[in-house]
Amino acid sequence: MESLEVMSNGVESCNGDSVQLSNDVKENDNRDLDLLQDLDSYWEEISDRLTISRMVSDSVIKGIVNAVTNDAAEKIAQKELEVTKLKEMLHVYHVGGDDNEFSPMQRESKGTEDRPIKKGAKGGMRPSFLEAVVQHDGIEKTLGILRGTTEEHFRKLKNEIDGIRGCSSIKRIGSGSQLLGFGDILQDNVSDRWIAVDRLLDSLKGTIEAVFQRVEGMVSSAKASVCEWQQEQDFKAEIEALVMRNCIWSVEEKNLDWFHGDKNLHWLGRMEEISSLREELDSISKSLSISDIGHLSSHGSLEGDEESNNYKKGDRLHRKVSSSLLSSSTVTSTSTPTSTSSSSSSLWEENGKHDESEIMQEHLNATRLRHMSIDELTNYYNNEMIKLKRSHESEVLNLTEQLFSLRREFFRERGSSLPSKKSKEFDLLRRRISEVITKLDEVLVEKAGVATFGIYEESLSSLKDRLELLISENKHLRYLLADKKGEVKCLSLQVSEAARKMSEHSMAEAKLLKTTANLKSAAKDADIEALIVEDTYACMLRGMMDQINCIAEESHMENIYMQEIYKSILKEAAHSAQPASQCEIEDLSMEYTIKQEICVLVFKEVMKDAEKNLNNLNLKYIEENELRVLIEIEKLEKEKQCEVEVANTVRLKQEILSLSEEKEQLAQDATAALENEKERYELAAQELHNLRDETCRQQKLISDSIEESNATKQNLTDALEQIERHKADMCMLDQKLELAMKELSEVNEERRMLLDANQEKQNALSLLEAKEREHKQQLESMAVYIRELLKGVAEFECRVTQDISRKCSRLKSLSSQFRFLKQKANVIVRRGLLYRQRLEKKCSDLEKAEAEVDLLGDEVGTLLSLVEKIYIALDHYSPVLKHYPGITEILKLIRRELTGEIKAA
C-alpha cells in the first residue's frame, strides 16, 4: 500500500520564529474537510469491493456445491434405476419361467442345453459392463468440466481482488495523516488482511484441487476394478461351464450305462412282442383271404395283391429295424430276424431279385452309417422316414384307385348277386388289420432310433478314459506336492542348523575383537561430547547475555532520547503557548501522558519477550545439563567396564607368565631327560618328523575346510533363495489347492443336486413303466384302439422328458443369473453408500469454508470500525498536532516497533 502524499501550506517555525495562527487555522480546517471526504469515499469503495468479492466467492462455492450435488444425485438415480431393472428382471425370471421353451435340438443333448444359458449369461453381463464404462467416462467428463468452471471462477475472483487492491492504492493529497504517521500503520494492517485473503484463496483452491484429484483417482480405480471384475466374471463363467460340462458328461455316462444295461432288454422284449403281434395279424389276414377265395376269386385276388403290397412294405420296414438292431447289439439280433424271415418267406420267393438289391443297399447304408456323426445320423434318419412316408402314401393312393376301379368293373359284370354284407365286414376287418400293421411298422421305425445309442458307447468310453487320466494326473501332482514339501522341510532344517553353527563361530570370533575397540572408542567419544557440550553452552550463554545487554542499552537510550524530545516539545509548547488557550495546553499534556504510556507498554513487552527467551534458554540449559549427567554416568559405566577388562587382561598376563614358567620347568626336565635318554633320540626325531607331516596335513585340511565352509556359505545362500522361491511356489500352490477344493465342493453339491434330479427322473420312469404295462394289458384286450393309446403314451413320454429337461435347465440358468444379479446389487448398494458418504463430507467441508469466509467478513467489518475510530481521534487532535513536527518522528518510531512485534509474532 502506498502512502498518501500531503501538501502543507502552513508556515512552520523551525528555529524559534513566530507563527501566524489565524491563517493556519483556516487552512487546517479546509484540509481537514478534504481529508474527511477523501477517506469517506475511500472506505465506501473498499466496502463495496469487499461485498462484491464476498458475493462472487459465495456464488462460486454455491455453484461448486450445486454441481457436485447434482452429479451425485444423478449417479444415485442411475444406480437406483439399475437396481429396479435388476429387480424387475428377477421378477420376470421367477414369474415367466414356466412359459419359456427350448428348441427340440436343444433337448437332445446336454451340451446344446448349456449354450443358450451361457449366451444369456454373457448377454446379461456385457450390457452392465458397457454401462459401467460409459458411466465412468461421463464422470470423467463432468469432472473436467467442473475443474474448468472452478478455475474460471477463481480467475475472475482473483482479478476482482486485484482490481480492489489497485483502487485502494490511490494517492491522496492531505496533511494530517502523513504528519501523524497513522496512514502507514493502516496501510500495513490492510496489506496484512489482503495477504490473509490471498492465503485463504490459495488454500481453498488447493483443497478443491485435492478433492478433484481424489475423485479422479477414485474414478480411475473404480474403472480398473470394473475391468478386473469383468475379467474375473468371464473366468468364473468359463470355469463354471467346464465344471457343468464335466458334471453333465458324468451324468450322461451314468444314465447311458443304466439305459444300456436295463432298458435295452426291455425295449428288445417289446420289439419281440410287437413282431409276434404282427405275425399273428399276418396269419389272421391270410386266413381271411383264404376263406374269401371260394366266394370271390377275382375280388380276393385283387385284395390279396393289395395286402401283399402292404406286407411287402411292412417287411421292408421290419427288415430295416432288424438290421439296425444287429448293428447295436449282437445278442438280441438272432431272435428278430428269424421271426421276420418266417413271416416273409412267401414274399421272398416272389420278389427275390428286388429284395437282393435292397439288401445290398442296406449293407452299404450300414457301413456308411458307422462313419457318420450324431447330427448326420439324425438328419439321415429323418430324411429316410420322410421318403418312406411319401412313397407309402403314394402307393396307398394308387392301390386304392386301382381297387375302386376293379370293384366297379366287378360289380358291373356280376351285378347284385354278391353277398354285400360279408364283403363289407371283410373289408372293414382287412382295413383295420392293415391299419394295425402300418401302426406296428411305424412303432418299429420310431423305436429303431434306440439302436443309435450304441454309437455313443465309443465316445463314452473315450470320456471315461480321459477322466481316469485326469484323476491319475491329479494324484500324481498331489504326490509330487507332498514330496516337495518334505524336501523343503529337510532343506529348511539343514539351513537353520548350518546358519546356527556359522553364527556361533562368527560371534565367538568377533566378540573378543570388538569389545576392546568399542570400549576405547566409547571413552574417546564421551570425552569429546562433554567438551563440545560445554563449549556450546558457554557460547549460547554469552550470546544471550550480550543480546540482553544490548536490548537494555537500547531501551535506556530510547528513554533518554524520548525524554529529550519531550523536553524540547514542552519548551516549544511553552514558548508558543503564550497567546494560546489553556485547552491546547491540556491537550498537549494528554498527548504527553499517552505517549509515555505507549513507551511504557513497549518497554514492558520487550522485557516480557526477554524474560521468555531467558526462561527458554534456562530450560534448554537444564535439559542439556541432565543429558550431560547421563552421558557422564554412561562414561563412568564404560570406565568401569574398561577397568574390568583391564583386570581380565592382567589376569590373562599372569596366567601367560605362569604358563611360561611351567614351560621353562618342562624344558629343564626335557634336557635332563634328553641327557638320560640319548638312545631314544632317533625315535623322537622320527616322531617329530611324523608330527610335522601331520601338522602340514592338518593345515591343508583346515584350508580345505575353510574353502568348504565358504562353498557351504554360498550353497546356503543359494539354498535360502531356493527356499524363498519354494515358499512362494508353495503359497501359489496352496491358493490353487484352496480354489480347487472350493470348486470340488461346488461340484459335489451340483452332483448331489443332479443325482436328486436323476432319482426323480427314475421315479417318473418307473411310473411310466407301470403305465406302459397297463397300456399293454389294454392293447391285449382292445386291439382296435391300440393306435390312439400308443400315440397318447408317446406324447406323454415326450412331454414328461421335455418338461423335466426344460425345468432342470431353467433352474440352472435362474440360479446362475440370480447369483450374478445378487452380487451386482450388493456392489451397487455399496457404491451408493460410498457416494453418499463422500457427498456428505464435501458438503461439510464447503459449509466450513463458508463459515470461514463469514468470519473474514466480520473481521473486515471490525477493522473498518477501528479505522473510523482512529480517524475520529485524528480529526479531533489534528489542529493541535500540526504545530509539533517532532510528533511525526515519534509516531514513526512507534510504527517500527509495532511492525517489529508483528514480524516476531
Automatic annotation (TrEMBL):
PANTHER family: WPP DOMAIN-ASSOCIATED PROTEIN
Coiled coil ranges: 600-778
Composition-biased stretches (Basic and acidic residues): 107-117
Regions of compositional bias (Low complexity) in chain numbering: 322-347
Listed Polar residues bias regions: 10-23
Keyword annotations from UniProtKB, A to Z: Coiled coil
Name this protein carries in UniProt: WPP domain-associated protein
Domain of life: Eukaryota
Stretches for region Disordered: 1-24, 97-121, 298-317, 322-356
InterPro entries assigned to the protein according to its UniProt record, in alphabetical order: WAP (IPR037490)
